[in-house]
């Protein structure tokens, strides 16, 4: 059984919910890591996972997934097992399982998202974002502590709910999707903390009912999605009501997103564009952009606001995805607008299942990717706003430059140049194919040092060149 458990884990990649730790040091040859250093590394990663969305830590595996085991003495291994209690404050109590593969010993820790902020003994708090576990600035620790108060809603155990209220076919489909052969009780209980089997009768969390309930609306009256399509660019009321289409989607969250996306896609128009003497069809919104906004709304909305649904409003010139609940601290509107790589889950139990279903593939990368997709299609950047208790992401279908400029710009992938550099190149392309450092400071809204570094990077890539030696004016090299 241990080998089967290990095989399932090694099929996965390091990410938001999984990490591997080697018990060996490779700096000066191969030697055992000092047990104290290994214990601190384990404690740091478990702290980040507990402060984040929870996860699994496997000790005794190299970054390339080769299994090397833990060669330490029994006393040192016992100290590793107790590290979450001895090195973390308040003490953390993850489940810890010894796995054996031949003569090799491994440790597998499973930690659920904590209701309080945990720190290492020195007072540093860590947080898990994708494959990284950075420390939190002091000002964000209190914000995180306040935000964790919202964890309770999805974790509450619902009186009167039992196994008969769950869709067993949906659970089986989920198990097959993630290739986990465990019994449904073990899968949802030990694997995802969605139910409690410690009592005589199994107790279901709200998260379990939202994800897999036969009738999710019985437990939450507005857990679905309302889609409204309007004629024109503004909402009208009364005699001038301009609603063309209204659809209410209600389904367990494991199916809700697919059902909604399939129907909304029918209303995304194709635009006919004349280019190189041929007509080309292009969707008015990048598929990834609007679908990612919808997924984020479902995953991160405030479900304690039971009187409101996620709403998608479609106008002639834009789509608005409206989510009940403002972004939870420590995430801010300004961070989103600046495309910062931020992540906090108001609903970590829901998020983990949705991520394993494939809806949240790039934890912390979704918003920056929306910016990239809109820019790549020559459209305006996404807009973020709040009204009352709704958080809204607005995507506009209005192009910001012509097809020829877009084609030229898209030869530079997102991995080559950043968003500021793309803005500068578009400006220069339409202003005589040249620009100055001062132009860059103004267009990209950066200081002189940032402008200098970005321009030097463009020069090294061979995209621009100085007009003359030591000049602060540059020209675009059109033919690369």
Per the CATH scheme, the topology name of the largest domain is: Heat Shock Protein 90
Helix tally? 18
- Main sheet overview: 6 strands, mixed
Give the low-confidence spans.
273-280
Secondary structural class: alpha+beta
* Total number of beta strands: 21
Gyration radius, rounded: 26 Å
Gap from first CA to last CA: 56 Å
Helix amount: 25-40%
Strand content: 15-25%
* Order of neighbouring strands in the sheet with most strands: 12-11-15-16-18-17
Shape, per Cα inertia axes: globular
Q: Given this structure, which CATH class of the largest domain is correct? A: Alpha Beta
The CATH architecture of the largest domain: 2-Layer Sandwich
Number of domains: 4
Mean pLDDT value: 87
Architecture overview:
The chain is α+β, with helices and mostly antiparallel strands and 480 residues long. The chain has helices at residues 2-10, 35-51, 74-81, 83-86, 138-147, 152-155, 168-178, 184-191, 206-212, 253-265, 287-300, 333-337, 348-356, 366-376, 403-409, 419-429, 437-444, 448-460; strands at residues 18-21, 24-25, 31-32, 55-59, 88-89, 95-101, 104-111, 119-120, 195-196, 203-204, 225-230, 243-249, 270-275, 278-283, 310-314, 318-324, 383-387, 390-396, 434-436, 464-466, 473-476. The protein folds into four domains: 2-136, Methyltransferase, Cobalt-precorrin-4 Transmethylase, Domain 2 (2-Layer Sandwich); 154-218, no CATH class; 225-344 and 356-396, Heat Shock Protein 90 (2-Layer Sandwich), CATH 3.30.565; 403-476, Arc Repressor Mutant, subunit A. The chain is built from 18 helices and 21 strands. The protein is globular and about 70 Å long.
